[in-house]
Amino acid sequence: MEIFVIPGFGVAGVSGIILIISGLTLAMVGNTGLSMPDSDYSPMARSFAMVSISILLALVGSFYLSSKIVRVKVAGSTIGLSEELRSSDGYSASEMSYKDLIGKTGVALTILRPAGKIEIDNEQYDATAQIGYIEKGEQIKVVAYENMQLIVRKG
Questions:
Q1: pLDDT tens-digit profile of 99-149?
Q2: Which of 22, 93, 124, 127 shows the smallest number of beta carbons within 10 Å?
Q3: What's this model's pTM, rounded to 2 decimal places?
């Protein structure tokens, strides 16, 4: 909610961080209320040091783990984003190749209700049916390319 009311970090963000650190520090001091002895602030300093070190270690650990998560493998597959988007997997870098498909015919590889996979010239593409559903194996025709999506109809 705060992000919509106060769009900048500014005063609210800085005061929030200060209050969180103060709250964590004061929660660790063994006193009743705010009755601190006038001369002995060592429990407060010790608590503040523990909170500061904990926050620092959490930040360092987060950065370290976020850099390593791409390389973590579980059951032979990498957890995280893949670094390689191959054209053999259906990825394409050019919009022009899709616009060139308008008017071509192909076959539905999955049921399009309304979205699914199609094949044109031995290449797989994601597509959306213009009207209704198209069953798997039916002939299709590309009629448009809108909003990064091929639009097809029975053909």
A1: 889 999 999 999 999 999 999 999 899 999 999 999 999 999 999 998 888
A2: 93
A3: 0.42
C-alpha distance from residue 67 to each of 55, 63, 98 (Å):
19, 6, 35
Hey, where are the domains in the chain?
2-71, 91-154
Comparing CA positions, the residue from 96, 124, 120, 114 lying closest to residue 151 is: 114
d(CA 45, CA 29): 9
Closest to 114 (Cα-Cα) out of 102, 103, 99, 130:
130
- Whole-angstrom distance, CA of residue 87 vs CA of residue 103: 22
C-beta atoms surrounding 93 within 10 Å: 8
**Contacts of 144 by beta carbon, 8 Å cutoff, 6+ apart:** 102, 130, 150, 151
* Strand partners of residue 46: none
Tokens 């200060």 sit at which residue?
A: 18
Whether cis (ω within 30° of 0) applies to the bond prior to 37 is: no
Fold category of 91-154 in CATH: OB fold (Dihydrolipoamide Acetyltransferase, E2P) (2.40.50)
